[in-house]
Fold:
Amino acid sequence: MSGDKKPKKHHWWPVALQSYWANSAGDLSWIEPSGKISKKRAANRKIGFKLHGHTIFHGRDWESTFESEFFIDNEIHRIIASLAEYKPFGRTSFELVAPIRCLYRKDRNLREMCRFYSLEEKLHRNLLLLLYSLLIRCPANRSKLEGYATIVGLEPDEEVGKANIMQSYNIAKRLCQNGPISSQFFVLLHSPFQKFIFGDGCLDWLTSGLVTNRINGRTLVPLTPNLCVYFCTPMAKLSSPNCASLSIAPWMVDWVNEITQIYSKDSLYFLGKAPKLTSDFRQAQFLEHKEKTDALIEMLDEAACITERNESGGSDGRCRGMLWVLRRKKWAWRCR
Structure:
C-alpha cells in the first residue's frame, strides 16, 4: 500500500491462533529466559507482532507492504476445526485395546497407534501454507534472513530481512497453491491433557528448500495447546493416505516442548502451568540442531513409514520400540 505512513502491527503469530492459547479470562501468558512471566489481554492484539514487520521502506517518499499476502490467516479457524474432524486412534473404548496390546509386543510399530486419513486437497494446501507462513515470518527466521547481509561484510539489515521474507513467502504460496502435493505427509499430534507450548521459533528443516523452489524437508509446529503438526516429504510418491492422527503420551509432549525451547529465544507462550525452562532456552539465542536429526523426528517419520533406511529401500519402517525411544529421549535432542 503506497503512501500509508500509519504504524502497523504486523503479526508474526496470527491473532486467530493466539485465541486458542488464551485462558478463560482472555489473558495470554508467556515466559522469558530469565523466568519472568507476563500476560496480556489477547483481544488487544498486542502480542506476537512487529511494527511495520512486513513494510518495506523505499527512501523517505513511499513504502510498500506485503502484510495482505498472509491471507491464509483468515482460514485459521476453518483449518483448526477441520483438523479436529481427523480424530486420533484410541478415542473409543474398543480402540484403546490395540495400543495396550501393542506395548507388550517386541515388533510393535508406531503406525499401529495411528488412525490414517486422506486430507481433502484444499485443507492440505491451506494447512501447508499456514505452516510455511508461521515459519517464514517468525522472529527466528527473520533474524536469520536479516543476517544474510553479513555474508558480504555488512551489518544485519532489517530491510534485507523483510525483502527475503516476502520473496520466500511468495515462492511458498505459489508452490502450496499450485504445486504437486503427492509426496507430502502430515502427522497430527493430539494431547488432550498435557499442553504444548509455542515460541518465537520452531523446528524448521523446511523453508531452506524454497531456495531451489521445492517443498522438501520437515517441520514441527504447535498450532494450539492440544494440537501439534509434523510435516515431512517422503522421497517416493505416496498413494492415499497422507495423514496420520494419534494421541501422544505426556512425555512426548514434553519432548516436543523441549525442541521448541531450542529454537526459541525471547518468549515461550503457554496455557495453564508455565513450562520448566531448559538450559537451551535460558541462553536467549536462536539455537538449532547441529545436524538435521532427532530421535523424536525419526519416530514420527516411522509413523509416516519413511525412515532414512526405508527411503533408500532397506527397511520396512518398523518402530524400534516406545520404551527404547523413551530412554533415548533424554539425550538425543541435545545434539544441536
User: Anything to note?
Assistant: The first strand starts at residue 9 and ends at 11. The mean pLDDT is 85. Residues 83-332 form one domain. The first helix runs from residue 15 to 18.
